[in-house]
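Page 37, top half.
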Amino acid sequence: SALAPQLRAHGTAIMGGWGRGSRAVLRGIALLSGRAFPAPAGAPAGAMAAGARWTSPGMFGGGAHCRRGFAATAPAAADDHGSEENNVRNFAIIAHVDHGKTTLVDAMLAQSKVFRENEKVETRVMDSNDLERERGITILSKNTAVTYKDTKINIIDTPGHADFGGEVERVLNMVDGVLLLVDAIEGPMPQTRFVLKKALALDKKVVLVVNKIDREGARPDWVVDTTFDLFCSLGATDEQCEFPVIFASGFQGIAGAEPDDMADNLEPLFDMVINEVPKPVVDQTAPLQMLITNLDYDEFKGRIALGRVNAGTIKTAQQIKIGVPGEPARSGKVNEVFIYNNFKRTDVESVGAGDICAIAGLPDVGIGETIMADGAEPLPTIEVEEPTVRMTFNVNTSPFAGREGKFVTSRNIKERLDRELERNLALRVEPGDTADTFVVCGRGALHITILIENMRREGYEFCIGPPQVITKTDPDSGATLEPFEEAVVEVGEEYNGAVVELLSNRKGEMLDLMTNDKGTTTIKYKVPTRGLLGVRNAILTATRGTAVLNTIFDGYYPYAGDITMRDNGSLVAFETGQVTSYALFSAQERGVMFVKPGVDVYEGQVVGIHQRQGDLKVNVAKRKAATNVRSNKDATVVLNEPKALSLDDCVEYIANDELVEVTPESVRILKNAKMDKKAQKQAAMKK
């Protein structure tokens, strides 16, 4: 009776195999609740279970492994007007970054005979973007389809980084289930929690895939248990907690129901997708409804809209309506209809409800709009979480402006940002203080720097300001609220002190600290987003490049106070010219340099890190005085290797009075001339 209130509140999971007292506890629960719990097929005679979590006699030693037994899950019932599309399955692969989503998709495509035997196939074939291949991460959600046992399986690969969570939220509207990939060593990570929370909120069927089972030190039982705890902490229902589990290695292309009983291929995974991911419940006879969830562009066909047909059938040359709830609809005509099959886009005459397709012929359609026939109502638009970080985009005003870029005006920049808004739902663009300034808001600094890098490669030239957090005001108390994130750092035990000191100095609050038997410590902090700006490089420096930092948005909390972001000032070029070895030899004694001999610099450009606080102007373009006295031999000049900064490094480094100049060929840091004038004016007024 003492257990009954907790069991009602949290569901039940009887720990221990049959014969260890489980049946007695279950009978007591049944008597207290006044109901009987029938055992599923295959369970021992006389067995009963509360909830529907079962284990076979003595299976896995009972207790901790009760998740992987019989599952008494009732099949989803179709509504009165719906029918099941039997030959289609739609699912997305969701996971934390670097848990092997794209590699697993590669193996699924290879074993589905998508490619010819003599065809050269790139690794991470779904990461088709150059930037994705360079960085080794998935940035955009992409979909394809394979056929297995006469069933069409639509697969959507999603990003794993927290900054691109909007991509995950967008595509979950197209699927009926998700494969939740979890690393067999790391277990659930911050982004795992985020994507699972979104999937559960939309009531998607979740299949747990314990990936990288072939890694040394894999602990699949612990991963399953911690994932179950994560489900419970997110408030999952009993039905959602009955998630099926399969073990896999995307790298080797194998899967199995148990870690020690793996098949030679991924057939067990395909079978589980067909058996566990629900069939689309649709109404083929209803008027057409299709929610647009992605956009593409073709040089010959124009804008291509992608989405799932929720009801009815869409056909080539069909007259349709386009609209959103609460607004008048407009007319349009579908010119072409495509489906994705075997990694290719194929023309078809029509696509029925439950399948994913792409259409051409609607130049003004946008993400979140509904394509429908007469008599149908528009579907709810796609909602994503609000951005937390903003950066300013300015027209380049440096002395080298216009030298390297093709698109340099404010009109060019505005048009490009407007195009990005059409498909990047998590992005916001607001007008700045002047006509040539734009405020771009995103999920994080990486979210915005990916946009900057893409624009740079397309020929754009502009300046960007430092990232700043977006604050809110508490409606009750009027206090300022700022975004906080949960930061998880994995590092060797010998560097614990350095990491704790860094995060504590940035107003972080320690939540957990655990060290495993391998000597690796996992440190969990709640830190203001302000404190995490620029902290990645600092942690890598303090731990000699061994730390792994992962973050996820936690919520808005009261303002944490002032945070010291940078201890050192900058070395600023004194005049415009070409860097000389003679000048660098003396300048390098003042700090770490960013430039090397022969590079052109201008007055106000940041050329290094000062070894002390405050900025220092240095003349790196000074030449050796020429005299009429012949020297037998010039002194040998030994220069330190300059510090190379990427775009991400520059964004993390800059202070409030600095800008990053971005061009197709160069990335430079400069002092903000407007900030200098304000400072001079304020100083003059004080005098």
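Page 37, bottom half:
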Amino acid sequence: MAETKLPAPKKQRGGHQKLLILDAGAQYAKVIDRKVRELCVESIIKPLDMPAEEIRQGNYTAIIISGGPQSVYGDEAPKYDPKTFELGIPILGICYGMQLVNHLFKGKVEKGGTREDGQFDIELDTTSSLFSGLRRKSTVLLTHGDSVTEVAPGFRSIARSPAGICAAIEDAKRKIYCVQFHPEVDLSLDGIVMLKNYLLNIAGFKGDFTPLCREEEAIKEIREQVGADNKVLVLISGGVDSAVCGALLKKAIGAERIYAIHVDHGFMRMNESKTVVTALKSVGLEIKVLSVEETFLKATTKINGTETPPLEECIRPEWKRKIIGDTFMVVSDQAIKDFKLDVNKVLLAQGTLRPDLIESASNVVSTNAQVIKTHHNDTALVRQLRDAGRIIEPLKDYHKDEVRELGKSLGLPQELVWRHPFPGPGLAIRILCADKPFDISEEEVKKTAEELKTYNKDGIYATLLPTRSVGVQGDARSYKQLCGLSTDKENPDWDMLFEMAKEIPKKVHNVNRVVFVFGKAIKEPSLHTITKTLLNRATCDQLRAADSIVTQELVSNNLVKKVAQLPVILFPCDFGIEGGRGVAIRTFITNDFMTGVPARPGKHLPESVLNTMNAKILKNVKGVSRVCYDLTSKPPATTEWE
């Protein structure tokens, strides 16, 4: 790097110091922003290629460069302005950000033989200001395939992973610090301390940014966007997000200007529609229920100019989500006609959250983020409506915990505020559809099964299942196979099971999710048969019944607040029983809903509750071969299975 520097930024006049987050395509960019807000620092997210001159004129106190899915030496590496590093502003590079800094300053970054995906205990050099006050060992989240193999001149290594890979570097003189892990997520246990050290101690933030009341800001935005004459049509899905959105709209512009509809698409949980209508009526918002199950099942859409099969025949997860999202829009347009509203004076309101947009790679958040999954409320059609100014999303800058706090302040019932998140497409995305086993090549199946054999120990057997699920590895989406762990032991060794679930996706590259299979041990290295599964009333009723049993057990044992989310999934693996299917229980412990861990039996919930769920599902839900318990953190697996 040349030593020539651009003119120093002018001293800020009044207001709060600002942090610039340069987004290299990370799924966690908004989580960085959220963690920074917790430390009372104002932050702004911009693309990585923001010109250095704009940065200088923006009077930013410091910079964080996010992670991203690309390689610094790849053709698709995001562009950046090298002069950014000549501004004399403190910089923290995270994951890809570290690799970029090391590459730019003439160090080496190479693709290694070992991916590091998941939690690891790394060794810190605590003489570094970044790690001030911490112990030498720290548990962090790593998600990378490329690694720093030679530290750039002027920098020194300040952390190493268990594999001996460089996990952090610094040039304290230039106040440039970089970490290969993600300090912004809950899975990095000391991450908030590291961010505090960087922001307050190294960069010199005062930590005095106290944002205006979130409720007041959202109400102001609603009133400005809706104006004096427009009316609002709001879709209430059944989850807490859309309910809070509806209640917030009512407070902002009054119930008389709101047309609230609840779309019962046939994919709701047991008694879901009745519950949400009653809850919102309690805060003065009347809801019209549209029963349109057949409309959704028969619906198609066009993707890249090609018409999809009807939803009831659709296999591909992304197609299912897009059909459902587009059909929501069609139904809302019909509702506008039924209400005899002027289409030019109606806005469509949605309870879209920031994590939804991040995972959909929406340009509302960033132009660089990779698609992890398409959310029903961020399809191409929704984006067209958004660009046309016809969609209002007052919660688009909120995370789930912030929405709950907002719901409380709006006076919504506690039982609604604390309900577990339920996706707009409902059970449709919790039924994994397939008409044939999901198998990689026969050669790869054999290879993967052989790799899994190394985990057959202490009475536990690892089996490759003919089902795939979505995951997030290295900031990008992965569709990979499912591994089932089973045992004949009456009392499973949960610590060992969770340790295996942590290790298998790191070492076995065709697997991104691991489950424990209740019942007798499965000693075959792989299973190959499934039951054809499509979206219809029978499969929805099957999952609805299983989901109801799990929910009732959670409520009756007062565990709703201990578990942040609990999807129940129906998947086509028959486990050797013709016509049978699997049911998976996916508990999720998280604060930010971008990362998280499954609940540990005996720690977060009693093992007896799980055993009761298993027994009741097998007894009362016809056609279920086995019940499974998801053991996988996010990442490498997502919360939902598709």
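Margin note: The radius of gyration is 25 Å.
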